[in-house]
Amino acid sequence: MAKKKNIEHLAESLPLVAIDLGSSGIRAMAARRVAGDKLHILGVEQSSQFQCVDRGVVVQSSNAGFMIGQVLKLLANRIGVNELPAAFVTMGGKSMKIYNVRSKRDQVRKREVSRQLLDELQQECKDKIEARNAEAAVLGLVPSYYVLDGVEQEEVPAPEQRAVMVEANYIAFVGKKELDSQVRKSFDQAGKSIEQTFVRPDALLSAFAATDGYEVLRDGCAVIDFGAQTTTLSVFKQSQYLCTKVVPQGGYHISRVLEDQGMSFAYAEKLKCQHGFASPEFIEKQYTMLVPAPGLEVGKLRISNTEVAMQIGLKLEEILGPILDELRDYENRISVVYLTGGGSMLNGLIDYVAQRTKLKVMYGAHDRVLDATTPEEYCEPRYSALVGALLLGADYRDTHPGQKINNNKLVDKVSIALIDIFSNQQQ
Hints:
Blueprint: E1 2-3, E2 8-10, E3 16-22, E4 25-34, E5 38-47, E6 53-54, E7 57-58, H1 61-79, E8 86-91, E9 97-112, H2 115-132, E10 136-148, E11 151-153, E12 162-176, H3 177-190, E13 193-199, H4 200-212, H5 215-219, E14 221-226, E15 231-237, E16 240-247, H6 251-259, H7 265-275, E17 288-290, E18 302-304, H8 305-328, E19 336-340, H9 349-354, E20 360-363, H10 384-399, E21 404-406, E22 410-411, H11 413-426
Parallel strand pairs: 3-8, 8-13, 14-19, 19-20
Antiparallel strand pairs: 1-22, 2-21, 3-4, 4-5, 6-7, 9-12, 10-11, 10-12, 14-15, 15-16, 17-18
Helix pairs in contact: 1-3, 1-11, 4-10, 6-7, 6-8
């Protein structure tokens, strides 16, 4: 084992970097804030070399650590810096649930409501939940509202506000402890630091609210995040998460259904993206395709786009049925449903969901928080969680000025060499 040189970085001197640990790979994005609180995307890198994340949970920390080091090395090279020692991380997973929690502090006399006090109250809330359940970990704490001397307010108390009694209320996103510990272990093995973690639903909501205006939060919205191996519903209104529901299936499982027709998984994924529809009713023109299939002569496997849509529709009902059943309980309390995630680009999916709810359905967008030089591809739904994490990360740095990042990690020499070799091959 070799010890890297101990270097302290002032956080605000580094680019904003976010990492999304997905079932289909690990993706990293770097950005800087520009005028008007917009983001200038510096670059994106990703790796799917190993399948080490299953339904939002890291199942192989050594492989995940290698890939984290890999994407940050590639990203540093792309944007022209020596090193990216830390990143903000989005977290989610099949075990995630939400709870309301609060903590109070009697300051004895009227004093300022300091950032240190708020951080202590937040930590107390985290400790309360984890003390009750040894198998649980708080993945994220989202401020709900504060009470200063009996007066409620949604905004985070400003430095000049003073109070005797201070109460902080949070929405806690809670999952299995292994979800948190495996992510941190992966970063340790990569020799990198986690600057802060954010739950994926809150990152997405931040991106959409910043684009569509905060009246969306006031009136209420739902976000359906259609990932590779999980589909997550989050319902939000006026600083409160009303519910979250995770179905441990996603776009990957739709491709598996098509694979069962006799084609390879890679071709099934391609067929789904290029010719797939959420339901046969959304097909305008019917046609038959010759599909390459392992073990069969070319042209022996024929399948129509209608058959493909039927197979997709059956699986989609299995995935989205529980999500839409849950959503019906909130239809009269919110105004819009956002679709996002890599699986959300399925043809006809907006119409499919719109037919099954009374709400307006649209893709979640984050384009308005990006500066005019941003390539169009970075406006796609697959990047929304990363953009949201960068926005939350920028806010975090604003409220924690002067924070230092230490890259003093123990890193295997072989791992560093392999990352360098792979990076050179990619170039």
